[in-house]
Amino acid sequence: MGVQGKIKPREDMVPFHQQGFSDVRHTEDWAPDLQKSKAYEQILLDIILGILPPSARLDELGLAKQYNLGVAGVRDALARLSLEGMVLRRPRSGTIVASIDVQEVQQSYEVRCLLEPQAAFLAAQHATRAEIDEIMTAFDGAEAAAKRRDFRAIIAMDQKFHRAVAIASHNLSLARIVINLHNKAARYWYYSMTTRPDEDRLEDISNHRIAAKAIAKGDGPAAMKAMLVVMGDKNAD
Fold it and tell me: Sorted alphabetically, which Pfam families does this protein's record hold (predicted)?
């Protein structure tokens, strides 16, 4: 990966999420307080956790009632999840949760190992103070959640962290790819996480905190190295 020279963060730079950029789609407003954004986050998390299992049929009215949200917001959320490959929408047969393709998960992981360290490097160069705060606080309360085995909370924190780093890279194309790949990989990661000892989960949290601190210090090479460790490359430590 090419490493660029140090670029100081611009405090006057408007973060992508305030420009209307949210996660994957740049042309629509996915501000967190919108109904469709809330529906998207809830459905995505339930797919990752297996509450909505592969091949499960997704009924818009039922989901709207379950999450206490409007049908229009759920419909928009499902459309976005379809674009991201998390659900499949078929004429006359409705919407179902996409299956987990192990080969695709492995390939996604390989691509993430190439891209996420670079995203961390760029975040260390470009992140605004608000974006750094988002990264630094993503795992607040994580140790307590790990000890009580609150996997939903840990997954949500992990999603928040990787999304925040991707956005802080200020590279829209890179952020789109990273976030989409991470969402897909999270489904498999959740299943493996539930079988691992508590010590492993606490180590994962610590590794994320080290990466966050490197980004906050503006240390691009250290951020890249720390993100490789987060990705499971023990040789990078």
Answer: FCD, GntR
